[in-house]
Amino acid sequence: MLWLLLAFVGTSYAQTITIKEQQTNEPVELATINSGTKLFATTNSKGQADISAFKGVEKIEIRSLGHKTVIKSYSELEADGFTISLENANFSLDEVVISGSRWRQSSDDVPAKIISITAKEVALQNPQTAADLLGISGKVFIQKSQQGGGSPMIRGFSTSRLLYSVDGVRMNTAIFRSGNLQNVISLDPFAIENTEVVFGPGSVIYGSDAIGGVMSFRTLTPQFSLTDDPLITGKANFRYSSANNEKTGHMDVNVGFKKWSFLTSISSFDYDNLRQGSHGPEDYIRDYHVQRQDSMDVVITQEDRLLQIPTAYSQINMMQKFRFQPNEKWDFQYGFHYSETSDYGRYDRHQRVKNGTARYAEWNYGPQIWMMNNLSIGYSESNSLFDQMNIRLAHQYFEESRMDRSLNKSDRSINDEEVHAYSINTDFIKATGERNTVFYGLEYVLDDVKSAGKITDITTGITEAGPSRYPNSTWQSLAAYVTDEFKVNDRFTVSGGARYNQILLDSEFDTTFYPFPFTEASLSNGALTGSLGGVYRPTDTWVLSANLGTAFRAPNVDDVGKVFDSAPGQVVVPNPDLKPEYAYNADLGAAKVFGDVVKIDVTGYYTQLKNSLLRRDFKLNGQDSILYQGEISKVQAIQNSAEANIYGVQFGLEIKLSRGFGFSTDFNFQKGKEELENGEKSPVRHSAPFFGISRLNYKTQKLSMEVNFAFQGKRDFDDMPDGEKSKKELYALDENGNIYSPSWYTLNFKGLYKVSDTFDVSGGIDNLTDQRYRPYASGVSGAGRNFVMALTAHF
């Protein structure tokens, strides 16, 4: 009976609109067509959409990033033959965004700062990973401990204080750690339709962890055919990069019918060891690596001293989506995602020394696996409760492992972690008047964490049980939220919201290897967060915004229960007596366009973090040191013991020059201090130095070129976080032998040429001057001079 209902189709005719770009006459894909909260459509790869449901509507908005917004009635579109040409816009102060509320809305109505990274930008810049994709924005700082990684830093926050969302589903799990994370590399840049970054707290919509910001990734959406013939589209890519001998291939295919559509995507990435640049600090050069020869670990001096060994790894990504739209009310989408890496070396640990030689013979991450099943059910029909409803049911599986062995030791320690994450989100939107819109929803998340340890004697092959990194645990989140958006007038919008979250954590500790004074722990914490903000447009060329918000992060399994070595001679142990940390944030932003030639965008912010979860000295059974992996190590634990204050400014400038030329620049400045155990202040660990990107670009109908200048400011020893000062393997040394992070720059050339409607050629030269540089807090240097060549075929 259900499928008979879903298969029912009304007798209304289909009316197709075609949207093209005025300058090139090419179809505009993913243009949005909407009328309030009740009607919405998106153009396919042919620039077409079915707007039958809009018949009789007096105000229809047509938007596309980089084009001027068109507002017309249905009758006016009919008079135009349902064909619209969008005029290019030098600048845009309003665009359609999703991440602010999980519903499509104009950025005019969102007080938070949000940026979009489009597929066109990705095609020109050719980022190798999803972490690099975020970095091309010039507003997100990326830290790397190894080539197979990338940990974003946003407004002084990183790792488990930032939230990742994939197709509206929370990616963060109960073992997302406060140390650097590389989970974002599980996403495939080729399969991402659009990326949005929300700066500042997002806990009202997204819950725990959304303190510094939200990174929302929307993957490719299956498209329907609007004719009797199937719509078959796709692309194939091949890319080569010289600095790491990259060999990447990708293909995606969409097959669409009127009610059904299918999309398949697959990518293969292969990276050799990464070569760093020739000109820079000698401290970054480690011209040796360890090999196993004749049952012995041998330290090998490299012929090419600039190669960073071991940093090589490979990865495969697959995605399969199905979409069924029986009528204009229902939209069913199912997505399957799978990503798996090879083993890869954690390069920062390979740089550690002991007794004048390499400390480790092995320190590798095992295969990182991410899988997601996601069912989204959308329903659009106005009633007393909602205009639109969306239900998301998701299951995610995460697998990761760590393997290390000291030089000339036979015991290899292995930790394996598995997380099954189940979630359900129900989101609603309701217009309660001409000027008022309410967003509300419910969420439930369950993470089931399994962790195991073992020790293998590589000489005998005998494996025994060993200490696990985490206790076996369950982590649950139950939440309800509501946000109200009120248009005071056509120039001024006010919005406010609140969310209540209850977090439950249950852990079972194994005392076989460590004498913990407890065998289980249970936490139950509630959190109420809120936001209040407004957007004011005094003219069409001015936008002013202000936003106040709170956010929280509940202790997770990583905070409460992990055991690991944070640094030589230090071991972190469990602490089940933790409470949530809270953030209080204020934003003030302004954007102005001058004569359709210059655009300036400035945002200032201040965040206070209370009950901050930090690693500090601790005692286990009254002892301040224990034996860990054969070494007496100082005991530390995560504790609620600090307050942090962070402030900063984000500045953007765009200038449209004549004859297709343009210039833009982004600067990011932030400072932060947190309390130490002795009451003194230390710079916040994840507050990046001054950084940004400046670009000179040129664009014609078929050719896009760009020369950009990426940079980071210097951070002296006195400005380094207290916890970083012992990590000599990561940094350069000053004249006093103290660590510091030198300033650096890279000069890069990018280009893309449309050979025909079928083929694109893109590529360029990264780090033209072959600088040897290392982003702040990173354990691996960036690529030296790097030649990139990519070929894309569209069909």
Automatic annotation (TrEMBL):
Entry annotated with the keyword S-adenosyl-L-methionine: no
Membrane topology: Multi-pass membrane protein
Domain of life assignment: Bacteria
Alphabetic keyword roster: Cell outer membrane, Membrane, Receptor, Signal, TonB box, Transmembrane, Transmembrane beta strand, Transport
Protein name, UniProt field: Outer membrane receptor protein
Signal peptide: none
Cell location: Cell outer membrane
One cellular component term from this protein's GO annotations in UniProt: cell outer membrane
Chief subcellular location: membrane
Database matches in Pfam families: Plug, TonB_dep_Rec_b-barrel
InterPro entries, sorted: Beta-barrel_TonB, Beta-barrel_TonB_sf, Plug_dom, Plug_dom_sf, TonB-dep_rcpt-like, TonB_rcpt_CS
Ranges where the TonB-dependent receptor-like beta-barrel domain occurs: 329-768
Any one GO molecular function term: siderophore uptake transmembrane transporter activity
Domain TonB-dependent receptor plug, chain residue ranges per copy: 108-214
TM annotation in the entry: none
